[in-house]
Amino acid sequence: MPIHDRRQRAAVDQLVEEYTEQGLSRREFVRRAVGLGLSFSAAGALLAACGGGGASSSNTVDVLNVWGGEEQASFKAVVAPFTSQTGIKVNVESTRDLDSVLTARIQANNPPDIAILPNPGKMQQLAQRGKLIALDSFLDMGQIQNDYASAWISLGSYNGKLYAIFYKAANKGTIWYNPSQFSNNHYSIPTSWSDMINLSNTIAKSGKYPWSMGVSSQAASGWPAADWIAQIYLNQSGPDMYDKWVAHQIPWTDPSIKSAFQMFGQIVTGSHYINGAPQSILATGFQQASYLPFDSPPQAYMYYLGDFTAGFISTQFSSLQPGTGFNFFPFPTINSQYAGAVTGGADVVTALRNTTAVQKLVKYLATAQAQEIWVKRGGFTSVNKSVSLSAYPDPVAQASAKMLTTASFYRFGADDLMPPAMEDAFWKAMLDYISTPGNLNSILNGLEATASQAYAS
């Protein structure tokens, strides 16, 4: 799921290029930026980013990120001991349109010292263009290899060099349930896909609804269903095929992709599986759908979405205790060869300037000591194996962290790695499939037609 409407990106990038390279006036820049849907404050921030400027002080590090509110407060709590110990000041700049602001600053030869990117796709692009500093040129790689599984190091690398530290991760291999209801009804936690279908059928035959699902999310409606497809595909076809799918090295009409849709269809079209389906799925917000298994009496018994769902549940039902009042079980095994495979997301630490202060901050952020500060505050999952599970505030957060640090395979959510036009088409296709699953062949043909253009541009 993106943090802003990425369909504006091409137009905003073009506007930045005209301002920085073709002498567009400031007034015209703001006028056109607002016309593209940016607020006056966002347009002003973007204009400031385009304005150039020198490097930061040798005793200061500028960090560009997407965090706001409690996340920003937690990051500042993380860097406070660093400043106290080193005397290096950390200036934190937050923007909800990081891609455009970062592009503008790079074009104006005024990059931030450090950028915390919301996915590794942007890191790969910047590394390819020579805009990032290779972190293995100053990090203790022996310590990094001790702290991070090889999968995480590989994901943060380009052409054999490390350019990103995976920092704040999300686990999308989680299915949420009410432990008390499972116990009262003598339901067993399913460990395989067939177990989960059998459990769903048992619940449905008793007159109850086994599943809750909602995919409404304004302009991004459909992304929760795309997460289902990604998690199914990785667990069914494995990481190599997953990478080929994301890179469009296989067509959307490939039998492996069709099979993933059909497995998702078992849930969507299951007899008595989802109350009011398919219309209710399309009309219900993903956050609201997470509440149904925890209502009294429960309106459903299982709900799939990433580990951030814990925040939705605990906010809505403040009396429920993590672990006993709500919990998750890992996405069930489909192909035993890929058991334990997990999709998700993560914020990654990258460096765009090579100064002593930058090196010190990157080294610090990569440590378990620094990451445990945010872990203890909540809302942070680390993939650093040296972060103690006891640092997490509750057993649910601990279990999610353990899943990530021990994952046999990990891949980013497929849609977030695809070109914006492909991502949008994927989301819309999920809405179409939920509405009319019998049209799967034509839906996949349409996605392939979009991909042929999106990946060529």
Description:
With 457 residues, the chain is an alpha/beta fold. It folds into three domains: 1-47, no CATH class; 62-170 and 345-412, 3-Layer(aba) Sandwich (D-Maltodextrin-Binding Protein, domain 2), CATH 3.40.190.10; 174-342 and 415-454, Periplasmic binding protein-like II (D-Maltodextrin-Binding Protein, domain 2, 3-Layer(aba) Sandwich), CATH 3.40.190. The chain has 20 helices and eleven strands. Strands 1, 2, 3, 6, 10 and 11 form a six-stranded mixed sheet that branches. Strands 8-7-9 form a three-stranded antiparallel sheet. The chain starts with 8 loop residues before the first helix and ends with a helix.
Primary descriptors:
single chain, alpha/beta, 457 residues, 48% helix, D-Maltodextrin-Binding Protein, domain 2, 11% strand, six-stranded mixed β-sheet, 11 strands
